[in-house]
Amino acid sequence: MSVDIQSTSMTEGRGLLTETEREAIAGERSDSYRYKTRTYLRNRLEKVERDIDVLEEHAPELLEELRDTVCETSTDPGDHVSTTAVDSVTQDNADRDRVKQSTQEPTKTRESDKNNE
């Protein structure tokens, strides 16, 4: 899977994710980095909540643009873009469980190793 990344100038900055983080979310980096990226994004989303408060009070037209962009839904059944925070949390929990399970699985002892104990 290849992520379509549009070039931006330095003055434009990034969206919520850097180019490398987009690749990680798309599965083009290690599972470990993908998991970390999801955590980074969750922290940024908390900051966006604070930004929304400011926009609501001082720039409601920008808040409306933000809502239009974020709440846009795809009608294409082949589009795999998550449109809800619930989808993101569900996927993150599944990733966390998989990482936890892989680090907690006991190593299997070979029969020959048992005889040497």
From TrEMBL:
Residues 1-11, 72-92 have a biased composition (Polar residues). Keywords: Coiled coil. Residues 38-65 form a coiled coil. Residues 1-23, 72-117 are annotated as: Disordered. Residues 107-117 have a biased composition (Basic and acidic residues). It comes from the Archaea. This is Uncharacterized protein. It comes from Natrinema hispanicum.
